[in-house]
Amino acid sequence: MADSHATKNHDYHLVNPSPWPLVGSIGAFIMAVGAIILMRSLNGGSGLFGLKGPMVFFAGFLLVLLTMALWWRDVIVEANQGDHTAVVRLHLRYGMIMFIASEVMFFVAWFWAYFDASLFPAPVYPINGDTSSVVGMVERAVATGGVWPPKPTADHTFTATFDPWGLPLVNTLILLLSGTTVTLAHHALLENNRKLLIRGLAVTVALGLLFTALQVYEYGHAAFTYGGHIYGATFFMATGFHGFHVVIGTIFLAVCLVRAMRGAFTPEQHFGFEAAAWYWHFVDVVWLFLFACIYVIGAGANAGAGH
């Protein structure tokens, strides 16, 4: 590996040897082992070698968090040393675009699961007498009552959907406003208006926290459960993973806020902030699709009846 401080006649950055890929891999492995031990314990097992699953999992999780913090710290140091040339910054942007594209496909899976259940809640009768694909659809009809949204169940695992024009609409407006404030902060940075940059980021972080708080409140008043029901499973997986991404995006922007308050970022070089803004806009767009498809289109006639 080449020394990044040495004189070079190219625009690329050849990084110095780093311990973080190895440390991060070890942390991820420990997390996986902890998750396996935890799942064994939940199924009536006694764990593995007397180890407690949650302790092992969170030990690995903390190691991964430490790796992330220190690795990104090194990236920031490299940027401040001038290693991030125009070519390097362009490739960083390509990497962020591909990461967001992979996240889009991640959410496609949850939308696929939801639409598969909502568009075909009743049995699909076979063509030419082929009954190989009917069994699963008949079982689904038992769970949904053959309609979507499903019929209320006797055990109250599903009573009603959310009223989309209540708290979900408020959360939608909050995220749309946060997209506006982060864009305002971006334009302020381009104009080297640091006071407006900091204020815009602070408001965006506050709106992200408010969205998360309202989402938790909404979950606490859901008229359906996650377990034992296809609607609850698809709803909580799709909106829950979105909420997880909101938390990540809020942390991302909070780090940018702290860096901005310490004088980081210039109109010419601010990829860290740009990546956070792109990620936040991605979170906004995903929520718009969730709100339209799950909350509004999938509301049904008795929306809000069980709240």
Overview of the structural elements:
The protein is mainly α. The chain folds into two domains: 1-83, Helix Hairpins; 86-297, Four Helix Bundle (Hemerythrin (Met), subunit A). It has helices at residues 20-42, 53-80, 86-119, 134-144, 167-190, 194-220, 230-261, 271-297.
H/E element sequence: HHHHHHHH
Percent range of helical residues: 55-70%
Rg over CA atoms: 24 Å
Beta percentage is under 5%
Residue stretches low in confidence (pLDDT < 50, at least 5 long) are none
The largest pleated sheet is described as: none
If classified by CATH, what would the architecture of the largest domain be?
Answer: Up-down Bundle
User: Based on CA inertia axes, which overall geometry fits?
Assistant: globular
Distance between termini? 61 Å
User: How many beta-strand segments?
Assistant: 0
In terms of quaternary structure, the protein is single chain
Structural class: mainly alpha
The domain tally reads 2
Helices, by number, come to 8
What is CATH's topology name of the largest domain? Four Helix Bundle (Hemerythrin (Met), subunit A)
CATH homologous superfamily descriptor of the largest domain: Cytochrome c oxidase, subunit III, four-helix bundle
CATH class of the largest domain: Mainly Alpha
Average pLDDT, rounded to a whole number, is 86
